[in-house]
Amino acid sequence: MTDQAVPAAPPVGEVTLEAGASGFGGAETQAAAVGGITRQTQFGNVRRRFLRNKLAVVGLVMLTIVFVTAVFAPIIATHPPRAQDLNITLQGPSAQHWFGTDELGRDVFSRVVHGTRIAVTVGLASIFLALVIGVVLGSVSGYLGRAWDALIMRIADVFFAFPLIIGAIMIILVVGRGVAPVIIALGLFSWATIARLLRSSILSIRESEYVEAARSLGASKWRIVTRHVLPNSMAPVLVYAMVSVAAAIVAQASLSYLGVGVPPDVPDWGNMISSGQKFFGFKDYLWFFPSMAVVFTVLGFVFVGDGLRDALDPRLR
Amino acid sequence: MTEPLLSIEDLRVHFHTDAGVVKAVDGVSWSIGPGETLGIVGESGSGKSVSALAVMGLVEVPPARYESGRILFKGRDLLTADDKERRAIRGKEISMIFQDPLTALNPVFRVGHQIAEVIQAHEKMGRIAARAKAVDLLGEVGIPNPRQRAREYPHQFSGGMRQRAMIAMALALDPLVLLADEPTTALDVTVQAQIMDLLIRLQADRGTAIVLITHDLGLVAGHADRVLVMYAGKVAELGTIDDVYYRPRHPYTLGLLKSLARMDQRRSDRLQPIVGQPPSLIRVPPGCPFNPRCPFATDICRQEMPPLEPKDGPDHLAACHHSDQLALQQSPAAS
Amino acid sequence: MTALVEVENLVKHYPIRSGIVFRHDVGAVRAVDGISFDLEQGETFALVGESGCGKSTTARAVLRLIEPTSGSIRFEGEDITTAGASRLRALRREMQMIFQDPFASLNPRMTVRGILREPFTIHGLDADGKVEALLNMVGLLPEHAGRYPHEFSGGQRQRVGIARALALNPKLIVCDEPVSALDVSIRAQVINLLEDLQAQLKLTYLFIAHDLSVVRHIADRVAVMYLGTIVETAPTDDLFERPSHPYTQALISAVPVPDPNRERARRRILVSGDVPSPVNPPSGCRFRTRCPKFANELTEAQQQRCIDEPPALVDRGEGHPSACHYAEARELV
Ligand SMILES: Nc1ncnc2c1ncn2[C@@H]1O[C@H](COP(=O)(O)OP(=O)(O)OP(=O)(O)O)[C@@H](O)[C@H]1O
Ligand SMILES: Nc1ncnc2c1ncn2[C@@H]1O[C@H](COP(=O)(O)OP(=O)(O)O)[C@@H](O)[C@H]1O
Ligand code: SF4
Ligand code: SF4
Ligand SMILES: [Mg+2]
Ligand SMILES: [Mg+2]
Questions:
Q1: How many Å is the Cα radius of gyration of chain B?
Q2: Residues B6-224, CATH architecture
Q3: Atom of ligand 2 nearest to the CA of C47
Q4: Is the pTM above the cut of 0.90?
Q5: In this predicted complex, what is the ipTM?
Q6: Where exactly are the structural domains of chain A?
Q7: Residues of C with CB below 8 A from B223's CB?
Q8: What are the pLDDT digits (tens) for C72-99?
Q9: Where is the ABC transporter domain (chain B) (predicted)?
């Protein structure tokens, strides 16, 4: 286009024609009036559709509460979470100890509040790890195809076939207990679905006409993947990841409950439920409050994930 | 025109959506007599399908709302009739075929079974007799080996055969009116010619009235008796095909005819498009909806919606303030 | 006039694979099966035919968006089927494509500016001021640059797609059904735009369509395809006024024209049945299973020839090449 004369297409906006022109052969044939199309940004659309969904908004509020609690745990907690006071063991909820105390006299409320930190950290970090692995392997699999695809998908099948908890336990048995091993274990056993999702969405987008257009312009593979394929195939993956955080939190609590998660003295919901169940039937507040915390957090992620899925689906405009 | 069999009077179907009220059908009237073919043309989104779906009761309420109008079949209003009466008419006396037969055929049932079910839903007939009739119908619409084909599933049929099967299903109960919504748009021209040939033959045998919805002005020219031109949910022009093609009285009709490339003529210099683009049905321009694109538009066009009035003769209607100016124009259809 | 593109014996077979562990070919979709044609500088050459006959496959092979199974494609005399990656990249500037679906051919997450800058970025060129010039060229406004594709109508999107194809100042543009998805009243606007651009920029078009009316208007020469082969080719008016292959005749007679009197007077040549599968095309003449001439006019001995011998695409005295043993021109419009 360097120094070509630009043809005399009339600049047009809203087209109005003089009345009484003798037919339709006006010079304005190239006119493309932009009538009735309002300016909407992609993001604005998504936000509008998200906020319209009541459950999604409820989920958002729940998650906000969870995150605020996690960040300001030391301020919100009424007692230090590890402080034992053997004089006041196993007391029911009171003005002093809102959720009561456990068998070592620790304040249950404060432990639930601090448990939020562990849950959120492990949930987000493990799924972040899974995303990194899943996106890299899924893109390679979907875009390069052939032998890569076959190899990666068989590996994914193996990881997919293992129940999350069993896989995680195997890893932890090898590397030992702790927050980091739990994160790594959960991440390693969550990437397979992400990679598969991404792969299938890449496979369909790879065939789309705009990718073909980019190829016909001479775009490199790297450019096609980063500019065209990934931005358009990430939506379902991110939604899935959101919901996976919930699954990771449940798994994290289960690992603690089974005694293979974070060390027992760490204030963690799984640990609390596990030790609280000994008093099942008479000191129910011990396992009830941490369980509610798990349910609350998990529902928050699920509601938001669901809302995002609907909001990102352009067919539901 | 004989006594109308089916007529729509001042029908308004509006969709209440987040973005606003979509006036999909906004004051449309037409009628069709026995054995007649009425073409409905107009561009995408002009309300052709919604008006047909309304007749079938297939418009979902809400989001849709019937703001006004009557749908009269043999003088009975389908919008106020009770459920039983409606069910007896829709599907039996009036049936419909669609652009995409896959949406109308259930993928998990055999084709013959589906046709037999339609028959049994409306007529007292044993299963075996209904199956036999389904096979006969498939044969009648030109499907080879109907016996064997009746036992196949829709995905085993080609596009043209699916359309034939849907026609067989629609005609199973010998309806008086067949609404055909773009029955050939998804098909290749040679298959389109086969399907239209089939429809004409069936119509001649049974005297079915056909409402042919399409955006192909050629298809209507060859197959309809009268044609209704829709624009932005409203009727622009209605008349016999000769009147509308050779003596168009609405600038939109004239514009459409002028803008077409013609296969039967040597290349003219340039095509003469209609400028601009169709309005969003949420924000239809005030006055005549066509005024921003109309070369004849004057102030009155921007203020007052022109009424649909007889021009030339009682059966040729157009909604335009200045249709007399068009009488001076040579129609591009006449060659 | 010199040939800009010469296609010779182009073949594209898509293998049909079977088996999960040991994948093996069990057959092939013979999408394009040995076609040859030339594109002259500055002309519009149309490929027509029913869906699945191989038009798009041909188009993509010419641009080397897919690798042909065999045959040669020469662009300005150079065989591009053997061009390496860097040569191919340079060739991309010379040939571009306009797609059928204006909704699928623009990346929904890029603004029009992003879409129109991309060709320059890819080739390391300066894009300053180019976006506005391109928009102006296709009849859009500079302020449209900041919008996303979904904010445009179908016709406007198609203009954006055209602008993108023009960006690198190509010599050849392949148009794959560029107006099929557009509304009647918008179609003429886009056809005029394509014609104006061709006149101004001396473009050569390979124009693919199934709508014969548009082809008659825009094309200089036409080739009719059936099941992966060209069955007839001729200058446009010649083809429409004296079609000599029974398939071309059926095709032309099937297209309705918007003129009631003419429609009433017309005679339709109906072909029977559906297009056979391109996996197992019929022996001899591929059209014989549906050919009305074969069924109604030929003697048994003549029919046998249609079954045994694939007819060559040659002029049999009708003024242009036709792949029918019994080619005979007819007047249909
Ligand atoms: N369920 C719905 N909700 C909201 N709007 C709708 C709905 N169904 C149809 N519409 C709108 O009603 C208008 C008329 O639609 P209709 O399907 O009748 O158009 P048409 O003339 O048949 O077009 P086409 O040629 O594309 O089939 C369009 O603007 C469409 O978007
Ligand atoms: N990627 C592919 N894999 C297998 N078969 C294909 C592929 N692309 C096209 N085909 C087949 O090749 C034939 C020709 O296709 P195409 O060139 O797209 O036809 P047209 O553009 O004429 O409609 C069709 O039978 C189609 O199904
Ligand atoms: S009423 Fe006016 S604007 Fe409408 S079609 Fe007639 S002349 Fe044009
Ligand atoms: S060669 Fe025979 S079968 Fe083929 S088109 Fe000609 S007459 Fe028909
Ligand atoms: Mg419709
Ligand atoms: Mg194609």
A1: 21
A2: 3-Layer(aba) Sandwich (3.40)
A3: 22
A4: no
A5: 0.85
A6: 1-49, 53-316
A7: 256, 263
A8: 999 999 999 998 888 999 999 999 999 9
A9: 6-257
